[in-house]
Amino acid sequence: MFTIPKSKPSKVIINSSKSIQHIEQFITDLHYTQSIHIITNSINDTIINNLISNYFWFQCHIPLSFLINPEFIQSHIRYGKCFGLSNHSAMLTDDVVALLPNGSLILSVCKDTYETLGLTGKKSKLSKNHFVITINLMDMEFKSGSKLYDRVQWCFENTFTQLVQFQLYSIDPEQKSREIQFDSHIVYTKLTPEMNVNELDDIVIPDLQQFNFTSLDDGTSVLDLLEWVGMACINGQRIRLNDQPDPFVAIYDTLDHNISLQSLCHYSIKGFLTTDLITNLNLIQCNPLTVLSCRGFAHSPVSRQSKEHGAGVGGENDLVVIRKYDESGLIIQVIGANDELCL
After folding, report:
1. How far apart are CA 340 and CA 309, in angstroms?
2. Which has the closest alpha carbon to 187: 165, 168, 169, 171?
3. What is the pLDDT of residue 76?
4. Residue 285 φ then ψ, to 5°
5. From CA 139, how far away is CA 153, in angstroms rounded?
6. Residue 178 or residue 239, greater confidence
7. Residues 6+ positions from 340 with CB-CB distance below 8 Å
8. Residue 6 host element (H or E)
9. In a 3-state reduction of DSSP, which class is residue 4?
10. What is the pLDDT of residues 321-334, one digit of tens each?
11. pTM of the full predicted structure?
């Protein structure tokens, strides 16, 4: 039996940025997301379609021993990068497996699994009932015949024998999605991102020229911007130019500094989306503003900079970038209440 921790307010971390390169540092730390929202003025859909048309990943049912196969390690871990995450919805009750692009294989397992697995890990900082085991697949000493490799292989073949439903993405050194060769008995599906485009007509948008992104003294204004982004992502009626809400029903109010624009485009992309795709999407720049909103996986065992992530105390693992035409902007991170800060 376990006790779910009481929910606490999420952490909102705000940073200013003067360049796209600075923003990319935060994107790289995110590893992967389940959805991306881009809000900007009308652009040719071909630009985004070209970015996602050659992007693909695999959903597969694999034994963990597949991830430590010497051929897989050599081809996908040490030559290129590989991202992976198991499909789970309740991190506090399920075992979660993640493969990071730095070659770290992370197992966040419940107490019962840990006691029978046979590998050494550390007690979770965020959950009494979980242990975290990290295996460095990039270590050149981690190879067949070594004491550690043989121990891990034995455990994956004898104690942790269940198949794991896994999202797996491999990228070659030229930054292109790469095919993965699966054994004949493994069930897998090749997937591509799903994209939807909506026109946001006659909406009120914030005048970013009135916001000083180099000074974050007025945190309230930044949170107002974040609320506007949320409204735009759900195509909210409250930001329409001629909206007249009932004050007893709607408590949202438009920003103090606004300019009117006939329309914006909202691009919604869903899937197992990794940092290389997000980085390319972040290069899209339009006037007067560009918004990039990324929603991470709540059940991921890590958040930014591979810090431990707690799904049971909020679970947020999100990133929002709001940019002006001059490439300056705001970086807003929303993470779980007990997650470590990544500044």
Report:
1. 8
2. 165
3. 94
4. -135, 125
5. 15
6. 178
7. 303, 307, 308
8. none
9. coil
10. 888 777 777 888 87
11. 0.84
